Each structure stands twice: as C-alpha cells, then as structure tokens.
Amino acid sequence: MTETGPLPELDPDNTFFWTSGADGRLRFLRCSDCQNFVHPPRPRCAVCRGENLSPQTVSGRGTVHTFTVNHQPWVPGMKVPFVVAIVELNEQPGLRLTTNIIQCPPEEVYVGQSVRVAFEQKEDVWLPFFAPEEGRS
Amino acid sequence: MKYLEKEAAITGIGVSDVGRPVNRSGLALTVDACLQAIADAGLNPEDIDGLASWPGRSDDHPGMSPVGLMEVKESLGLKLNWFTAGGEAPSQIASVINAAAIVAAGYARHVLCFRTVTEASSQTKNRRASVSGSGGKRVRGDLQFQVPFKAMSASQWIAMFAQRHFHEYGTTKEQLGWVALNARRHAAHNPRAIFQKPLTMDDYLGARNISTPFGLYDCDIPCDGSTAVIVSRKEEARDLRKPVIRIEAIGSSIHGRYSWDQYSDLTSMPAEESAEMLWNRTDLKPADVDVAELYDGFSFLTLAWLEAFGFCAKGESGPFVEGGHRIGLDGELPLNTQGGQLSGGRLHGMGYLHEACTQLWGEGGARQVPGQPQVAAVGVGGGPVSGCMLIVRE
C-alpha cells in the first residue's frame, strides 16, 4: 500500500470522484452541453455555465506534466523519497490531477512520461495514483 | 481613464523585532510595528481612521496570522471609519491594495495596514502553518486534491512549477541558486535579517534536498515579526514628515484558473496577469524601475515575477539572474535588497513593500541602492496568489 496524507472528507459533490475507483475507472464531471470536463467538481460548467453535469468515465491515461521528488518528511515518520506529480489526462488539455507516481523508481520519472491510473482503496476512498504505462515509459 | 490609486501615498513604515523566535506576543510585535509606522509618517494614533490586514486572525494555522484587527484597534485606541481583513484577496499586500482605493474614495484619510507572523514561536513538530493537513484530520475544499498524495507543502507545489520551467526553458538549478545567493549577500547588510553569513554556490548545491529541484536554501524561513505601512490620501501626504511615495499602479488580476494544478501555464501563474494589469495603468515601463522587491518564499517565484513584470523575456529569467551581476545593489535591477524572505525571514509579503519604501526614501544604509532610486516594483505571492504594485517617489 502506498502511504497517504490525510484523506478527503466525503460530501455530496466529491463522493463520486473519490469512490470512482471502486470499479477501477476514473471519472470526472462533464458538461453534456459543451463537453467540457469540470474539475474540481462544481455546480456549473465554467465554460458555458450549463448545469447538465454528470460523472463520465475517462481512459485513465495521461502524461506527467511536471513532478517533484520529495525528500522532506512533512510529518514525523513520513516515508521518503516519493514522487508528487501533476498528471494531465489525455481527454482534455489542462485537465490535471496532483497525484503520486507509483511502481516506478523516483529517478526514472520524467516530464512527458505516459502514465495510467492505478487505484488504491484506503478506508472509504479510492485514491487515483498513476503508474508508468507498461512498455511505454 | 483616471487610475485612482495614484491619489494614494505611502507615508510611513514600521517593522518589529524579527527573529526565530522573538519572545513577545504577536500583538505586542504588531503594536510595535504600527506605532513605528505612525511615528515615521509624522502622525499620531488619533489620525488613523482606517485599518486593514491580510488574512485576518487565524487560529487554525499556528503563527500564520495570530492578530486580528480589533485587537489592534483596542490596543491603540483607534477611531475607525473603515476597516477590513480577509484572506481571499490579491496577495499578502492586499491590505495596501485595498487601502489605496479606500483613501482615494475618501472613506478614510490614513489607513494603517499590518501583517504579523509568529510561525517560529508557534510551530511544533506536529503542527506547522506551512504544512496543510498536518493536524491529521480529513481535508475539505480544494486542498483535498493535494494533501492525500502527501502534497502538503507549497514547497512541493512550487517545486513542480520550477521543474516545468526547467523542462520548457532549460532553466538550471545553478540559476535558481543565484536568487538565493543574491538574497544572502544583501542580507549581510540588513541587521534584521535572519541569515547574514555568506552563502556560496557550493553551500547552495550541497544543501539537503527538500523537494526537487528545491533544496534547503530555495525555501524561506519561518520567523516572528510584524510589518506595518500607512497609506494616506496623497493630498494629506504632502504635509507629512517624509517625501511622498505615490502608489503609481496596482495589479490584482486572476483571470485563469484559481488552482495549484489547473492553471494553464504553471510557469507563470497569475503573476503574469497581475503585472499586465499594472502596466496597463501607468505610462512607466519596466526599464523605468530602479529597484525590484519580488516574492521569494521559494526561489523560483522570483524568476516567475521577473518574467511577469517583463524585466526579461518569458523563459529567460534563469540567464537573467545568472552570475548575480544584473540583480546586485549596483546592477541594472537591484533585487530583493533586504535579503528577501529567503535570508531575511518570512514576514510574508509586506516585508518587500517595507524595503521598497526604505530604498525610495534613501534609508537603506549599507544596502542602499545608489543613485536615489525613484521607482520600485513590488510583486508578492506565489501559485494562484498574486498582487503587485509600482510605487514612485515624487
């Protein structure tokens, strides 16, 4: 299991996102009027102000937009080093998640690397970590 | 169009003892800084009719903002016609940005603005203002998308902006280092600076890693201290003790996403939008600036502000600072002349404005920029938080 920080508090707006991994799929709110993905979850589409938003499955594939190898234990006992990355999803420019790159030595992570979502359940949330695409990193 | 911030002036500044820690309460430090600023302007507490701060009292983050407006009002016996504090505002100098509009509108004549931190004396092993989620509780709001992944510190978030800048523009760790080295050499001439011993590139590169590309000396230092600034109607300022420093233009824009990861260009963030607004409100140009005080809560943020203000082209801030010649006290753009927050201590934004005024009034002592600087640029904040100001000595 990958070590985590404090988990999100589930509420009516975010529960779909944090439990999406229960079936192994990543979902974002999407506007059915203009097809814009909306993240973090909001009541309206910020592009067209439409209110017809619903969680839609995405491929779970993306690229490492940027990353950092963290060496500082921010709370006592935190395991280091680990990689924090911002992954941009293939579905939409700018649709990004801050996450950890797992199943990969920190020194082998690079900007532009192809990655794929890898969920881990912790208590009542499924955290979308990302791992290198097999054979493509 | 008339830009009303030009009707506002900075008339006095003050700063308390600064240290790690200072063994006094946040309120005591605040009162010291405020009384100093009032006296510096040649005013009395009876003259102060406005009060502003950022982000207002916060008891959730130890030492981040331990003092509220009303404690200061009550301590100094102020009679206020206008007051405000809040954190959802354009940067840590938002109190001054607000005050400029307020004196121009005539709600108040002299607004006392302050910012106080007691991070050094308040933090414990388990609770630090700068570490989100360090209390262990479940997270709400936008931080829920960072903290579960152990992305709990701005040093990690901003390290990723720096890494992206490295990737797009070929910026190097050594270039980043010149921001830290420059701050340290200026801090040597600032008696209040936390770190004054010389820092070499070897020291910088050999420091322990925090979050790549950031090492220890890319990160500023939590401290205790309070900074205060008086903003007055310009017509009143002419009769006061010091030469008038006019607020020439402000920048407070956020057009792109307010987010640590969704903003389109992570290498600029809205600093670029704030600076664009600022230049649209003045006839002055980047080449007219005599001294720049640009946020260095993390070294990379200074590079981002250099580009945002147009002191160099987009992507060229690394070569611009390399070698430190351009940004020294006798360089073409003296930068972070008090040692920034990297060496001076995290007074959190207001320290830059204090130093800019110090330089324009010629009070910099051993770190005074030669040639009577007249125009100073102040850029404050990092990530989605930004605000900036151009001030001119008349």
What attributes does this structure have?
heterodimer; A: 137 residues; 3-stranded antiparallel β-sheet; 1 helix; B: alpha/beta; Peroxisomal Thiolase, Chain A, domain 1; 2 domains; 9-stranded mixed β-sheet; two-stranded antiparallel ribbon
Q: Report the order of strands and helices of chain B.
A: EHEHEHEHHHHEEEHEHEHHHHEE
**Mind telling me the C-alpha Rg of chain A?**
15 Å
**Which strand order spans the largest sheet of chain A, edge to edge or round the barrel?**
6-5-4-7-8
| Coarse shape of chain B | globular
**CATH homologous superfamily designation of the largest domain in chain B:** Thiolase/Chalcone synthase
- Structural domains of chain A: how many: 1
Average pLDDT figure of chain A: 96
Radius of gyration of chain B: 19 Å
Between the first and last Cα atoms of chain B, what is the distance in angstroms? 21 Å
The portion of residues forming beta strands of chain B comes to 15-25%
Number of distinct beta strands of chain B: 11
Element order of chain A: H for helix, E for strand: HEEEEEEEE
Overall form of chain A = globular
Strand content of chain A: 35-45%
What is the domain tally of chain B? 2
